[in-house]
Amino acid sequence: MNVTITPSSVEGTARAPPSKSYTHRAILAAGYADEATVRDALWSADTQATARAVDLFGGDVTRDGNATLEIDGFDGRPDVPADVIDCANSGTTTRLVTAAAALADGTTVLTGDESLRSRPQGPLLEALSALGAEAYSTRGNGLAPLVVTGPLSGGSVSIPGDVSSQYITALLMAGAVTDEGIEIDLETELKSAPYVDITLEVLADFGVDARHTDDGFAVDGGQTYSPAGGEYAVPGDFSSISYPLAAGAIAGDEGDGVRIEGANPSAQGDTAIVEIVERMGADVDWDREEGVIEVSSAPLSGVEVDVEDTPDLLPTIATLGAVADGDTRITNAEHVRYKETDRVSAMAEELGEMGVETTEERDSLTVHGGDSRLEGATVSGRDDHRIIMALALAGLVADGETTVEGADHVDVSFPGFFDVLEGLGVALERDDGQ
C-alpha cells in the first residue's frame, strides 16, 4: 500500500497504542507461566510472531476481543516445536525465542524474512553455547536461520552490550526457569539500557526476581512465572507516542493542538521524546498522573540528541530536525543501522529526496534544517514501520504532496497509524495497488 499525504495541520485527541516492547515480553512471560491473561496488548505483525512461537512451544495464545490475550503457557519447559519458528520481521521475537528454544530438550529451527536474516545473532548464539546448549547459524555467519538444541543448564556467561540489549533480555527471561540461573557479565557498555529495565519491570510483575550486578545482570534459577491475580496490563508505547507528539510539534494547531492519552510513565527510555520535543521549542505539557500529553506547534530549533539508549527515536528526531531551524545532530547511532533497515542511511537518503540536507557519519546523523526546504516527493518506506511513520510526518509540512511507498508495514507496531492521522485532520489517500 502507498499513502499520499497532503500538507495538513493537526488537532484533536489520539490514544497511545500499547507498547510493543512490553507486549513481546508479556506474551513470552505468560508462555513461561502456567497460564496468564495479558490485557491492553498490542496485536501487531511483530507481537503475533511471538504468540506463534508460544503456540509452537506447546502453549496456546487466544485473542479475546481487541486487546486481551488468554494464554495457556508451557510452564517453563517448552516443547520441541513441530515446525520451523518463522519470526517474520521481528528481531525481538527472534532473540527472546532463541533463548526460550534452548530450554527445550531437542532441536528448534528459527528463521524470518530477508531483513531479519541480516540482523546479528552471533553473540547470543555464543552465549547459549557457553551455557550448555548448542546454538549456531546455518550459514556460519551469526545470522538466521538459526538452529538451537537444548536443554540449557545455566551458569555464568559474558556477552557484549553494544550490539543488542535484547540478548540480555532473552537470557534473563530464560534463565529464571533453568536449574542454575544465569549471571551475565557485560564485555562492553550496554546500549539501549532502558529496554533491559523494561524486562526487569515485566519480570517483577510476573513474580520473577532479576537484578543488576556490578558487572551486568543476574537471575536465579528455579523461579515460577505468575503475575498477581493471573493478569498483566501493557502500558502505552512511547516509541509510538513519538509520532503524534512530533505531528503536534510540527503541524499542531496553535489554539488546540494534539492531546495524547495513555502516556503513563514507565521504564521506557523513549519517554525522552517528550523532553526532546520540548527542548526543540514546541509547547508541551505532560500530566504524568493522568497520562496525558498536550502539544502544539511553535518554531523549532535544532538540538543535539544522544540515541544510545533510545535508538527507535532516530527517525522521529530526524524529521523534527528537518523542520527545525539550524542543525539537529543525532549521536551514538551506529546500532540504529542494525534494525529492520539501516535507519541512519534510510532517513538521510529519503529526507534527501524531499530536499533536506544531511551529513551522515558512521555513528551520527546531522540534519541541516536551516539549509533545507521540505518538498513533497515519492519516498520509500524501506519496509520499515518507523521510517514510514517518520516520513509521513514530514509530509504534513512539505511543499506539495508526499507519497510513502510500502506504507502497510506500519502494522508491525502501530496498525492504526494512518487512521490516527486522519482522526487528527490529516488529508491522505491510500492506494493498495488494486
Summarize the structure.
The chain is an alpha/beta fold. The chain has twelve helices and 24 strands.
Structure characterization notes:
It is a single chain. This protein is 30% helix and 24% strand. It has 434 residues and is of the alpha/beta class. It has two domains: 2-17 and 236-431, Enolpyruvate transferase domain (UDP-n-acetylglucosamine1-carboxyvinyl-transferase, Chain), CATH 3.65.10.10; 21-233, Enolpyruvate transferase domain (UDP-n-acetylglucosamine1-carboxyvinyl-transferase, Chain, Alpha-beta prism), CATH 3.65.10. The strands form six sheets. The chain has a four-stranded mixed beta sheet, with helices on one face. Strands 2-15-17-16 form a four-stranded mixed beta sheet, with helices on one face. β10 (155-159), α5 and β11 (182-186) form a beta-alpha-beta unit. The chain is globular. It comes from Haloterrigena gelatinilytica. Residues 1-11 have a biased composition (Polar residues).
Coarse structural class: alpha/beta
Strand composition percent: 15-25%
- Our count of domains comes out at 2
Shape: globular
Calculate Rg over CA atoms.
21 Å
Cα distance spanning the termini: 9 Å
pLDDT average, as an integer? 96
Enumerate how many helices there are, as a single number: 12
Kindly report the name of the CATH homologous superfamily of the largest domain: Enolpyruvate transferase domain
Q: What is the CATH first-level class name of the largest domain?
A: Alpha Beta
Task: Characterize the quaternary organization of these chains.
Answer: single chain
User: What is the CATH fold-level name of the largest domain?
Assistant: UDP-n-acetylglucosamine1-carboxyvinyl-transferase, Chain
Total strand count, please?
Answer: 24
Helix content: 25-40%
Mind summarizing the main beta sheet?
A: 4 strands, mixed
The residue ranges in which pLDDT falls below 50 over 5 or more consecutive positions are none
